[in-house]
Design a protein that fits this description.
The structure is a homodimer of 328-residue chains.
Chain A: H1 4-11, H2 15-23, H3 30-43, H4 49-56, E1 61-66, H5 73-87, E2 91-96, H6 101-113, E3 118-121, E4 138-141, E5 150-153, H7 155-168, E6 173-178, H8 184-199, E7 203-208, H9 213-226, E8 232-234, H10 238-250, E9 260-265, E10 278-281, H11 284-299, E11 308-311, E12 314-316
Parallel strand pairs in A: 1-2, 1-3, 3-4, 4-5, 5-11, 6-7, 6-8, 8-9, 9-10
Antiparallel strand pairs in A: 10-12
Helix pairs in contact in A: 1-2, 1-3, 2-3, 5-11, 7-8, 9-10
The structure holds a DNA duplex (30 and 30 nucleotides).
Chain lengths: 328, 328
DNA sequence: AAGCTATGTGTAAACGGTTACACAAAAGTA
DNA sequence: TACTTTTGTGTAACCGTTTACACATAGCTT
């Protein structure tokens, strides 16, 4: 790899001059510029970001921490972040935290050691303090904290909406599957749904499940044993909903006639299920992109009106819920 | 952030000594070590990777280029890579190429500018030359090239297997959905399946589709119009298979009685489909992990027996193919 | 006791950029 | 013309590490 010194020699100027024409900073004679650019071209010179980053004390790298890229909800978000940052020449250093505090800390540390300009993180509640004394901008994604800017979606409305959908469409024995309570957004949607259900005159049962397929399957199996009269299920996410759907089909229960089911997230394969799953949509890609936008504003020290951006969710009506007209 | 100089001052030694005790290189008196470590502890010193990387001309960063993290096949692979590298303290810089040459080149360049120690890439055929004159190790993932080490799966056996499955289970009017021919592994599995089918005395039709849901849907709709007598479909991947499944169900065709369907990849939601999709499994996570392992060996200049690692695929028998006993 | 080797430590030069500063020449102003 | 400002360029310090080298001292050998 050619260095700035090679270019300087080739062009017969000093390194300072090369640096100036490369960055368009300071003065440089038109003719000099040409000579330098020719040398750059000839040697295929690309400035070493590491050296630059060392002097400037900041790189063109952004750290991204997500719980688990293997969970279909997150790739969309990651892509949103990447696509947005990419336009501005920023690159992503990426890490899966598995919601584990140690891993988060480890990543934060190494990100810092690499002089990242900023970080975007879906971090667990308690780990927020890890970000507290950083002197680089951080934006939370899909999670919130008072002190940090954040982009997330309207879990409360989402939970409420899910409940409303089943209620409006006539379910009266509803099981609400609660995800892990430590995961704030999941807990919030649960609470909102629960509240909404309680105000209606229906039977409500709560069951616990992890966010994974396996967790969903065990949960759902139990569900039908304990509450065979169930005619409505609100799942904590689409994966668990898919598990429920499978169990429902296996038991020969008609859906949506005998039982209604609603998921959460609207991850891609949700439309491919049979019957296609009704769900509450979170705009994952958009969330990622907006978090990136916010981060860049922070980096550029632009003044920010809003630091907490709550994106709207929506009900995606498919075929595991009844048409509103045809209430039972 | 504390620097090595701060630590040196705090400990009352020179920076060289601090560096030596941090790295366990050269001599250092036991007492000195203690003093230094105490200072490190006190100041919470973490060496700046950027400076280190500048001097050493290599960082602890590995570049990863994948076509699209949003395609469920890749997160598994990415996770395999990450989990493996993470143990050795390497971090990932990540980029989506969308199979586009420019994007690949752009990422390769910036990765290089950041002094990555190595790269793992799922790159398009022609772009291989981009890696040619690099002086850092590269390993291809899910793709192959003569000159570069690679980890991939046995597409030929996979394609053949898919064909064999339908054949052995009695399909005689088979449609083979071919993915984009530019994507080598997809093309290979197609060719292998085609060959196998041709040797049998069955009707074979070929249709084209992209690898996306949308592409699959359009393709499949046409499929049934053009070849209503079809009793077996081999899809180029699971997503397209899912689209096919949906169309089959919509048309009220019985599966697997009237038609058999087999996918490719065994991405996670494949088991959640109804009926669960029979497919050819590629060990995506394992592929990622092995590519990482290979890369690390290269980085450490370890001698390598095999540079091209072909991982086995397997038939995952679910319910869109008939039991072998109950051939029609 | 003299001459080794092994141990312990510091100084300073890299690594590849950016930029403050100095200085010179050109251009503008009175 | 003499002075000021603008333009153009180079020198060298700096960013935070690592390491070659020099040097000093301790511990062994005879």
């Amino acid at each position: 790899m050619a260095t700035i010194r090679d270019v300087a020699k080739e062009a017969g100027v000093s390194v300072a001059t090369v640096s100036r024409v490369m960055n368009g900073s300071g003065y440089a004679h038109e003719d000099t510029k040409k000579v330098v650019m020719a040398a750059v071209e000839k040697l295929n010179y690309k400035p070493n970001e590491v050296a630059r980053s060392l002097y400037k004390r900041k790189s063109k790298l952004v750290g991204l921490i997500l719980p688990d890229i293997t969970n279909p909800f997150f790739p969309e978000m990651a892509r949103g972040v990447e696509d947005y940052l990419q336009q501005f020449g920023y690159r992503l250093i990426f890490g899966n935290s598995d919601e584990k505090r140690d891993k988060e800390i480890e990543y934060i540390d190494t990100f810092l050691q690499n002089n990242v300009v900023g970080m975007i993180a879906s971090t667990s509640e308690e780990a927020n303090e890890n970000f507290d004394n950083l002197d680089i901008p951080v934006v939370l994604l899909d999670r919130t904290a008072e002190k940090l800017p954040a982009v997330y979606s309207d879990q409360k409305t989402g939970g409420k909406l899910a409940a409303r959908v089943l209620l409006d469409r006539g379910s009266t024995n509803i099981v609400l599957i609660r995800g892990p309570v430590e995961i704030k957004p999941v807990y919030e949607r649960y609470m909102a749904a629960l509240e909404e259900l309680k105000q209606a005159k229906v039977n409500v049962q709560v069951m616990d499940s992890s966010l994974t397929l396996q967790g969903g399957q065990t949960c759902v199996k139990q569900l039908f044993e304990q509450y065979p009269e169930t005619d409505g299920i609100i799942a904590c996410n689409d994966i668990v909903a898919a598990a429920a759907l499978q169990e429902i089909l296996k038991r020969g229960i008609r859906i949506p006639e005998d039982i209604q089911l609603i998921g959460y997230d609207d991850i891609s394969f949700t439309a491919l299920l049979h019957p296609p799953l009704s769900t509450i949509r979170q705009p994952a890609y958009e969330m990622g992109a907006q978090a990136a936008e916010m981060l860049i504003k922070r980096i550029n020290q632009e003044k920010m009106e809003v630091t907490h951006k709550k994106l709207p969710v929506s009900f995606v009506e498919r075929q595991t819920t009844r048409r509103k007209a045809e209430k039972t």
